[in-house]
Amino acid sequence: MDQANILVIGGGVVGCAIARELSERWQDVFLVEQFPKLGMATSSRNSGVNHSGIYYPKNSLKARHCVEGNRLTYEFCTKHGVPFRHCGKLVVAALPHEEAELQTLKKRGEDNGVEGLRVIDASEIRRREPHIRGAAALEVPSAGIVSAEELVHAYARVAVNQGANIVTHAKVTSLEPAGRTIRVGLRIGDEKHSQAEAIEARAVVNSAGLYADEVAAMLGNDSWTIYPVRGEYCEVRGPRSSLINSLVYPLPHADGFSLGVHFTKTLWGTVLLGPTATYVDRKDNYEKDRLPISDFANSAKILLPEIDENDLQLGYSGLRPKLVPPGGHGIADFVIARDARVPEAIHLVGIESPGLTAAPSIARQVRELTREVLS
Fold it and tell me: What's the confidence (pLDDT) of residue 21?
């Protein structure tokens, strides 16, 4: 049986950032990912926004890791050549009576340590985004966009250069406590050609995203249930992509379910419109019963009246690992903790937005938890 200091389960952006962080400190770090490529399930299927930290309750893990992760992500991208644009964003109140919500959002962001926030009027909105119509907006200068897929691979590349081992097509089939280690059963390969393997690790980091609840359950921990929520996108290409210059968001949903369907001027010059938010029945349901383009157009016209259904084409979709069930309310915080019964395991559950931004900061917390396990 192979031995490892640390086994990271899940090769999304958070798992790869953790592998990078831990391999800087320890040898024999392994990362296993069940899909053929890193970041396939969630990390490369989002807006690629480097968030600021304005949406999340004060002292929450989401707020803490988003604010710190925003800075760390820019630093990492600069150092390792990951494409990004530090463009800022506008959160727009469409109607005058919504301006009070902008002040609430501004106060929350300031409580979380977000700097440079200010409310601007309709004339300044038009100066920044000539085609957007709104009564007022919150200017968020620290927000930006990043190539999500290249960020995932850069974290992985640095980890490998530091000695980490990354294996794709590697599905965890069992986890068994064994004294002060955990025996991990693996199925390596695709459906046609695979073989069983096993590895014994002193610490196991469960960063399995959509499947983190199932991984925890392998250790007898049924504390969490992931409810997959699909986010769909449309895309504007060609000359009409000039309607948007950077990032434009509506006010977030009052129940905390979603940040709303927003506009993202991508690094390659198109405009993404999305994501929507719909609970789905399966953790692989990316495409069944997609929303019609007319739904996107109707939503977009509230802030961008010039947009037309003919300007849009269906884009990709992604799934978020929500901890709030259908019909629930509020923002569920990240779960980042050692297992109460099996302390050699560290669980990361419900790592949805702002997970892309928060990844390097989350990795630092996992490093401290790992140090406790290995001490």
Answer: 98
Q: Among 345, 361, 279, 276, which residue's Cα sits nearest to residue 53?
A: 361
Q: What's the one-letter identity of residue 90?
A: L
Residue spans of alpha helices (H) in 219-329: 293-300
Residue 52: which of 232, 283, 249 has the closest Cα?
249
Domain count, the chain: 2
CATH number at residue 305: 3.30.9.10
State the pTM of this model: 0.97
User: What's the CA gap between 258 and 204, in Å, rounded?
Assistant: 31
Same domain, 138 and 250: yes
Identify whether 82 is part of a domain.
Answer: no
The pLDDT confidence band at residue 258, using thresholds 50, 70 and 90, is confident
- Asked if 301 and 341 sit in the same domain, the reply is no
Domain boundaries, position 288? 87-142+228-322
310's CB contacts (< 8 A; 6+ apart) are: none
- The letter for the amino acid at 281 is D
| Residue at 296: amino acid letter | F
Can you read off the two tokens belonging to residue 124?
Answer: 């300044």
Instruction: Give 136-182 pLDDT, tens digit per residue.
Output: 999 999 999 999 999 999 999 999 999 999 999 999 999 999 999 99
